[in-house]
Amino acid sequence: MSLRRNWTFVGVAGALAMGTVACVQATGSQDDPIKAGGGGDLSVVAEGGVQGKVEPTGVPKAEPNWKEEVLMTGFNTPWGLAFLPDGRMLVTERAGRLLIVDPKTGAKTEVSGLPETIEVGQGGLMDVVLHPKFAQNGLVYMTTVQGTRQGNYTVLARGKLVGNQLQNAEVIFKPNFAKPGGQHFGSRIVWMADGTLLMSIGDGGNPPSAINGRLTRHHVQDLGSHIGKVLRLDENGKAPKNNPFVGKEGHCRKSTVWVTAIFKVWRVILSRAEFMRMSTVRGAVTK
Asked: What is the mean pLDDT of the chain?
């Protein structure tokens, strides 16, 4: 696989005369539809029970003044990317490697000292971001999968990057439920202006995936579960005191919850306007 200079965002929107869209489903590999080619028909199911296919409308037109340029090739399922202050990049590979990549020379150097990672289906070593004060503390944050195929977690880990080594790597947040299988882990990390971070966790998988006899997907609207949520954490993986569900009975560590009823969050971008809106709704402290 290759790294490209421009980013392409593709969205699918649909409306049916008989009701609102309730489900979007793609056929293909249960564990990894992307690796299987992403094939299959997209279908939509309306509230009224009408089902139909979403027909492709052709290749999107290229934006004017945009140019696509392949920077490097030879990656094994690259997942996350973060720019270092000197212009080099940290690139994660899902199988569990973190690389320091020099886009000028093409050199790739593997970083040692990473936390435990398993690759299962869609999950493995995923996102990577630098601490906002990386120049002072050298901290790197990652989301990765730990556990087994039968029971696994999307965890938040961090360590200090010194040369080509990640020192004192540790898991600072682990969800309260393990899920089975290799689907729908999330996961992205975004820093907010107040020094807290958002971490997304997927819904855990399509039926019949279940936890203790309950469909995994049913956890997304349960505030007693971290599955299917966007979490807001401080730099140490703890719940900020001004999170929306702090102190409410039955939520315990779920006070980390920021947004509920989330399915597969593979991209998170906060514009300034969106950040201000979320800050107002959820009570974040801005500076």
From this structure: 76
